[in-house]
């Protein structure tokens, strides 16, 4: 940037680049509006960055009107230049030296802004928003989608005797070259409103894979066909995403019916088959999130550590929990064979996630048993919120005390409670209160997605959602366990050091005082 600035200033000083003398931008309202519209074609976030860098000032807002006023006062005009030249009787605009100096200033600042923003975009200084130029939605807004188009339009309207400004700058200004061009993919809205509809064209799905694989160069997006309006284009885009997913070791298969294994194809996603689309998303979550945030070695060591603290009551509760888990698993297998739709939705993610789910459940069981609670599934057992409160309170007793957890009286299922409607209502309110406490604690802990609504026994959690949440919670609490252990070690070391220091201080005082004790006694006796 420094070499480019020197080259631009040299070219402007020698007259190689000059503003048109027949058009005074600052004086002509139409030209002023056109110049400011050119700058405001940039996204306000990027424009603010460019103005701050070139002008050397910090701007407080990204409001477009504010930035437009800054560009008018500091790019089109300049207080230092106005102060340098004296006004004539007819004003500064009648002073040709002032007009020439102001034109050089405007030209230099504009070219610096364009060059810097093009370079900054190539370096991805700002991840969001991804668009360098504004997405034109208004009919009267200037259509600028590339840095080259910006320079060509500027040269056509404001520069004197300029043919191809790109070649001119490339030859005379140290290989000045702008390359950024905003494509339709850059302007694409990746917001998902309906999973069965919005993932059909494969564009959003491909972008998800790029984010998860940290593909900043977006090599997958370059293979997409846009706009994806025909079925063939959508099939191609989804195939690009599925091919990349399979390269990372994700098995694109699902179990349908009675243990019938089928391959997941791009047609399933394009046709909007909701069950298979959810299967694909769950496989992505398991592969890139669950397996990355959890360490089986840490969980196993923590389970052994908690089990060593169990008494007879906790051991009996743990045995009962595992027995209930085995029974429920057998019932679920029978339901899968009888219910074809359930089999399609549950699919073969069990082969990918079963080990992780069982290990997390084992951790929940040993911690819950330590607090006198049974847990054997991720739905009804977590509906009251008491299990999650016990997990958080076990590792952070100061953050969530056991006494602050509302007693649901009925355990998990409220259908067996008394027929009293008031008691049932109180139970549901207590369960919702527990989830309010959980969300507050999760927010205080950090690094855990806030994905839990206020569940209760009438509105039980969804299995996969709870697995994902408990996995994040387990990962965060195990980190907190290490932090707490480190704190205890530091405290013990400090206390030992402090005790030794106090003992040394006492010994020093004793050595100093002991010789003085006989003198004090003799003086006391003499005084009496």
Protein topology:
Elements: H1 2-13, H2 29-39, H3 44-55, H4 64-76, H5 79-84, H6 96-122, H7 147-158, H8 165-172, H9 195-198, H10 203-212, H11 231-247, E1 253-256, E2 260-263, H12 266-270, H13 274-293, H14 296-307, H15 312-338, H16 340-346, H17 349-370, H18 386-395, H19 421-445, H20 463-513, H21 516-527
Antiparallel strand pairs: 1-2
Helix pairs in contact: 1-6, 3-4, 3-6, 10-11, 13-16, 13-17, 14-17, 15-16, 15-17, 18-19, 18-20
Give a quick precis of the structure:
By secondary structure, the chain is mostly helical. The protein is built from 21 helices and two strands. Strand 1 and strand 2 (260-263) form a beta hairpin.
Give an overview of the whole structure.
It is a single chain. With 528 residues, this protein is mostly helical. It has 4 domains: 2-172, no CATH class; 195-276, Orthogonal Bundle (Actin-binding Protein, T-fimbrin, domain 1); 295-473, Actin-binding Protein, T-fimbrin, domain 1 (Orthogonal Bundle), CATH 1.10.418.10; 484-527. Helix content is 61%, strand content 2%. It is built from 21 helices and 2 strands. A two-stranded antiparallel sheet has the order 1-2. A hairpin with a 3-residue loop joins strand 1 and strand 2 (260-263). Helix 10 (203-212) packs parallel to helix 11 and helix 13 (274-293) packs parallel to helix 16. The radius of gyration is 35 Å and the shape is flat. The model is unreliable at 341-349 and 410-418 (pLDDT under 50).
